[in-house]
Amino acid sequence: MRIKSNLQNIKKSLPEHVTLVAVSKTKPVSDLMEAYEAGQRIFGENKIQEMTEKWEEMPKDIQWHMIGHVQTNKVKFMAPYVTLIHGVDSLKLLQEINKQALKNNRIIDCLLQIYIAEEESKFGLDENELNQLLTSSEFKELKNIRILGLMGMATFTENQNQIKKEFTHLKSIFDSIKSLKTENLELTTISMGMSGDYQLAIECGSTMVRIGSSIFGGR
């Protein structure tokens, strides 16, 4: 029952406009089912193979979010069912998602990952690359994807001011592209904030938080 009570406590702390993604990577199906029984329907995984196995085994009203780095050669495995792909960081990857979505007669929703941290290891586009991508003719040709917004990960640090600065930066980038109009853009979502910093992320404008350890315990 620990997972259930963790989930209920977190949901109580979230404003209505914020979507909770329960990050269930590496956790057994039994843990996910406990969260499911408590009402959770959105789960985030970072490995396509693991997510696909869970999708096959679990109830079909679950929304599966791919929150890890995506390799183009793996897209085809999740294309039949994935609800939202968080970490899209290149036109090449978008084109592959579009191709696999077309094969499955779907439109797949995506978030573009923006590089906001001061660490070298994080993936993502910078502001110039984002603008180049969204205004390119190649992007406008993609009819089987829909960009719902942006995703970013703050630097792994105790420095709250730095995290706040990075989250605020992502919100300002989101605001700067909101006026762009193409058929495959529907900008509603800013995915930022995890177990340690989601309250700060919400203060800075997040509409979607990715929480794992505070629900399921440590890995």
TrEMBL record:
InterPro entries: Ala_racemase_N, PLP-binding_barrel, PyrdxlP_homeostasis. Pyridoxal 5'-phosphate (PLP)-binding protein, which is involved in PLP homeostasis. Coiled coil: none annotated. Belongs to the pyridoxal phosphate-binding protein YggS/PROSC family. It comes from the Bacteria. Keywords: Pyridoxal phosphate. The modification N6-(pyridoxal phosphate)lysine is found at residue 25. This is Pyridoxal phosphate homeostasis protein. Residues 2-218 form the Alanine racemase N-terminal domain. It comes from Flavobacterium artemisiae. The keyword Protease does not apply.
